[in-house]
Design goal:
Number of helices: 11
Radius of gyration: 22 Å
Number of strands: 11
Structural class: alpha+beta
Oligomer: single chain
Order of helices and strands: HHEEEHEHEHHEHEEEHHEEHH
Helix content: 25-40%
Largest sheet: 6 strands, mixed
């Protein structure tokens, strides 16, 4: 359940990704190819997209508090850094002081190839995002209608257009088909199938780290130290989906291991246990597409079966003699707002660290 940590920014970003027409209607041009939390020019961008008509990149920063000078500095840095682009600042609200500072900055800095938009959120948006944040994580996606019901969700507070209307960039608006002879393209194609088949598992909506010759896709399972891993064909020539537990979460692994027979009945009959892994392993199908479909089918059963325990909306059966407990308790404290790290960049850092630990 999300209530143990704030996912409001993540939820809004995923909602905007899944509803590109809302962004298009607000900005006045067609927005396409939306990607979440992509590293660009040594910075993590909350949302990256493309103006499909003008072939210009769009960089969107999401802030769920009132616009302030800290974020203002970051937006100015983005404007100066990303030439030939559209920069969008989404914040809870903007006061006259921030808007006037923006106007003054634009009047003294001519950026010929940067358009800028400041968008505020509907006054009830934060409350709805908090409601979604408190839901069981797998229920959030099906309740996105709560955000769609706010009309308008986004309001234009300031526009500064400095790209000539006839200017056209060189961004490829039609991404090439994946080359399934490349390991990184296989992972991207597999991830797209997982997004389509299991859209309610929100971690699938983010781009994942890819390296040449790395055949394993990793994804957070909902708790630090527990991750999903899958591959269409690993070095053993096997396809698999597995839940991996690092050493610090050994009690979770043992708790699931102690009810292995029950989980095979309720989750998947071919669950295999060993080396802090719970997974399903099989020979790849005749085509990558068929293998992706089988991985998605298994993945869905594992997500539906294990998530209630991981998110603690269900208690493990008493016969699980080792019942995991949280080892650390975080006490919320009020801190000055910082532009970095964002919720999303922290999530990516944890996923990359988990991937690194697997090699040890």
């Amino acid at each position: 359940m999300s209530k143990n940590g704030s996912m409001k920014e993540n939820i809004l970003s995923i909602f905007l990704k899944e509803n590109p027409q809302l962004l298009s209607d607000t900005l006045g041009f067609q927005v396409s190819n939306i990607i979440l939390e992509q590293r660009h020019a040594h910075r993590n961008i909350d949302i990256r997209a493309v103006d499909s008509k003008r072939r210009i990149p769009i960089f969107i920063e999401v802030q769920l508090t009132k616009a302030n000078t800290t974020y203002l500095s970051r937006m100015i840095e983005m404007i100066e850094r990303y030439n030939e682009s559209v920069i969008v600042w989404v914040a809870k609200s903007f006061d006259d002081e921030i808007l006037n500072e923006l106007r003054m900055w634009f009047s003294s800095h001519q950026k010929e190839f940067v358009d800028f938009y400041a968008l505020s959120l509907h006054e009830d948006a934060i409350g709805v995002l908090q409601k979604l944040n408190e839901m069981y994580s797998l229920d959030i996606y099906k309740n996105f209608h709560l955000l769609r019901e706010m009309n308008p969700l986004l309001n234009v507070e300031l526009v500064n257009l400095q790209i000539h209307p006839s200017h056209c960039g060189q961004i490829n608006t039609n991404p090439s088909s994946p080359d399934l002879n490349r390991a990184e393209d296989v992972k991207r194609a597999m991830l797209q199938v997982l997004r389509n088949k299991i859209p309610y598992f929100l971690n699938f909506h983010y781009d994942k780290k890819t390296n040449q010759n790395d055949r394993i896709l990793t994804c957070g399972a909902g708790k630090s130290g527990i991750i999903y891993r899958c591959s269409a064909k690993d070095v053993r020539n096997l396809a698999f989906v597995e839940l991996y537990f690092d050493k610090a979460e050994m009690d979770w692994y043992e708790a699931f291991e102690n009810i292995a027979d029950e989980l095979r009945k309720s989750v998947y009959p071919d669950l295999t246990y060993g080396k802090r892994r719970i997974g399903v392993y099989f020979k790849p199908k005749e085509s990558n597409e068929q293998t992706f479909e089988e991985i998605a089918r298994i993945f869905k059963k594992m997500i539906d079966g294990f998530s209630p325990y991981i998110y603690k909306v269900m208690e493990l059966p008493k016969r699980a003699s080792v019942v995991p407990t949280d080892k650390f308790v975080q006490v919320p404290i009020e801190l000055p707002e910082q532009p970095l790290p964002t919720e999303n960049s922290y999530r990516i850092e944890i996923e990359e660290l988990s991937e690194l630990l697997l090699t040890k």
